[in-house]
Amino acid sequence: MARIMNIFLLMALITVLTIAYISPASAQNEMECPPTIEGLNECINHHYSQGDISNQGTYNSLLAKVDAAQAARDRGQVDTASNILNALIKQVSAQSSKNITPEVASHIIQHTQIVIENL
């Protein structure tokens, strides 16, 4: 009986820790990111406002690349837009663990790769 009680307590502890880990506070830091250049812009703005992108210069540089990619796409220059977004990926990769948290850097890179595929 004591062994069953210990197992039950362990399961309860795991449940509590799981709920604490997936709390509204962590959910607040996540958002739906449409696979578009506009969605990438929203994503970068969101993560800067959450503090996941900690340097304003890095933030401004990322937004400038997104804006340039959008302008290129609007002119029908898909290859140029793709090249600009690949430069953004390289910058995010270089800033991971420096001015961008590793989790968010990974997310932005994946998001950008999907945007490039959808150009």
UniProtKB/TrEMBL annotation:
Domain FIMAH: residue ranges: 38-117
InterPro entries: FIMAH_dom
Annotated protein name in UniProt: FIMAH domain-containing protein
Organism: Methanolobus zinderi
UniProt-listed Pfam families: FIMAH
Source species, domain of life: Archaea
Phylogenetic classification of the source organism: Archaea, Methanobacteriati, Methanobacteriota, Stenosarchaea group, Methanomicrobia
